[in-house]
Design goal:
With 89 residues, this protein is of the alpha+beta class. It has four helices and two strands. Strands 1-2 form a two-stranded antiparallel sheet. A hairpin with a 2-residue loop joins strand 1 and strand 2.
Length: 89
Amino acid sequence: MYDLDLLEHTDTVNELLARYGVKFGIYKNNTFKEQLFPFDAIPRVIEKDEFGYLEKGLKQRVVALNLFLKDIYSKKQIVKDKVVPENFG
């Protein structure tokens, strides 16, 4: 069912993700922590009902990210309000 050869390349893929900066950051309790995006060679199968539930959260996060980027590249209100520090990333 799965191509198990992919499992042999997990470390290589993670090294490439790290080398090319495929990361995300979490800012919590005045601390910024950068992490690699997790890589899993075996895909997860998500049932339709569960995906519908997850999709709502994903859409909400995309809207939030777009609003954050719009603000940070224009008014910088999120910095002025001290939600994130000026040198957050």
